[in-house]
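PROTEIN DATA CARD
Card holder: Laccase
Chain length: 587
Origin: Punica granatum
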Amino acid sequence: MGSIILQSPALISRAFLFFALCALWAGLPYQVLSKHAGVTRHYKFDIKLQNVTRLCQTKSIVTVNGEFPGPRIIAREGDRLLIKVVNHVQHNLTIHWHGIRQLRSGWADGPAYITQCPIQTGQSYLYNFTVSGQRGTLFWHAHISWLRATLYGPIVILPKKHVPYPFPQPFKEVPIVFGEWWKADTEKIINQALQSGGAPNISDAYTMNGLPGPLHNCSAKDVFKLRVKPGKRYLLRLINAALNDELFFRIANHSLTVVETDAVYVKPFKTDTVLITPGQTTNVLLKAMPHAPNATFVMAAQPYATGPAAFDNTTVTGFLKYEHPKSSNPKAKSPKLPLLRPKLPKFNDTAYSMKFNRKIRSLANAKFPAKVPQKVDRRFFFSVGLGLSPCHGKQTCIGPNNTKLAASVNNVSFVMPNKALLQAHFFNKSKGVYTTDFPSNPPIKFNYTGTPPQNIMVTSGTKVVVLPFNTSVELVMQDTSIIGAESHPLHLHGFNFFIMAQGIGNFDPKKDSAKFNVVDPAERNTIGVPSGGWVVIRFLADNPGVWFMHCHLEVHTSWGLKMAWVVMDGKGRKQRLPPPPSDLPKC
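Structure generated from the sequence above:
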């Protein structure tokens, strides 16, 4: 990387010391820039319990460094990150760097039992990876059970030095992270649900940068406030870190310009309302009014929900406040300004969801090309949805004939192994850990969005798809109406993919292939499979390792809506996965 890491300020010159202090003041990790492109940035994540009060009660939550939401990671494109995670709590855990490509660094990806065993109590692990060819907003979160309910924070990747944004330079940049808050312990909630076979209890509130806003009890002061100067432009880095809910977001009387999604620049477009699924990030430009108006503007987010189950139908609010010219009378009180509220789409407005997603297009220019695979080596068709699974042994479940709720891809409900898949693959010890017979198509064809088949039982197993290096993949993901049609935000680790087309109903290859956008499709890492519809993606399997793909609604992941791709090594030295680090946690 060509970087120099500072060991002790006493040992360096005054010039270097001045830079280090500036870097610390700016919130960056302790480092020194070299003449070369990248630097190495060090972070330390101490996982510890912290008492936090929300909604009239205090509870002990799992945090990084006692912060909620967690600390911001800041890097530039080309930088190397060394993040030491030390586990001081009773839960085993891992951290995932959501959306980071992890080129040849799959050991640092983070999903438990996929690329690593969890970090046990009292143990640590150094996540070591380089941010290659990416810039924008991503985020980090725990990737085991439901611990990401409180373990999450932003990742801000700035362009390389002296490289401008391909949109007007903002006056200020502000991360806005949406989360979900339960009064109860989320680990108990999901464990009880898995035991009973039913749906878990819904959350009590959504949060905006950890705060639920004044519509909730005891929350008049728990409000995120965005203070702006008239006429200035702001870049809002929106992140949906909620567990189970897609969200509509809007600011009263202001329009937003979308300039980036999932850390990929897009053709700018204006919108009143942003739709953002769990796992997605969206950068928007907000242009403040030229003169400070006599009003406070509500920023609100509420759910887009399409499934049959109950959902948290509350609204999280924050305030957009304008800075007013200082009064000549220092004792004069600020006048109480009227509160203007935004109108959001209805909770089940799938038409708005489709319309919004179709507006997202890659820049696809000389500087930022859209490298869409034009030829396809392997085609897959995945049905995604819900089903039932039998309860075994002494377990008594609430479903018909002692069954429990399940979720599946091609009718396979994924069973988490007790050893990490990546180690089993790397050391050729897959026997008893996983099988390579994941179906390329649904085992039985049916009217996916019509009347469900009589038998809605799923099968289960730890099955993967094996891909040779550099295989170009086309994947149709089709929602099903079994138990109920529902939008499923699917996240692929290790890759970005291109969204060729999407639609409602059953995918028809003859008719729908003609709609493919091969010129400037959206490039993302997470996409909502439309409720009662389908989406087609393409990606190039140019990253050796084992890569998780799963629904980012945590309840569906818990029920088995997940699978993994094993990408084999290529022939070249830079096409092979290096051996694991010596401190890789053991199961």
